[in-house]
Amino acid sequence: MASGSRPSSAPASPRDAWTPVGDRGVAAAAVAVGAVVDAVLIVVFAAIGRASHREGDAVLGVLGTAWPFLVGALAGWLVTRAWHRPTSVRPTGLVVWVTAVAVGMALRAATGEGIAPAFIVVATITLAVFLLGWRVVVALVTRRSRRAAVPHPKENLL
Hints:
Elements: H1 28-52, H2 58-80, H3 89-110, H4 117-149
Helix pairs in contact: 1-2, 1-4, 2-3, 3-4
């Protein structure tokens, strides 16, 4: 290795170590976790809604309520190529949220399920909190960790 060069796997700078995307790509585990978190939160949304209306048939009923929104979220993942930046609020989170709601409501309407205005409002707000909220938390934690990892210039004065 030439003097001053670094191994190809080493980040170019401390900041690059925290960059979720780049030439290094995103670890498969991060993509899987992002997809699972989105899916679980959509299922939780469906479960909360069904419980609040005291609807029976717990597992199948929840999945029956969730599937249109899961398809919508998948569409959002494909549109944004979310596997490149699964924790990004913008564009990934925003597009996944909007497509989950829009496609979910369209599929519910196409299959004869209810799309009452109140349900649309509740679904839009709840899925925004869920699908954007976890990404905002990740961004804040990452930002805080990044700041802690970079030494302050005054610390180097000896």
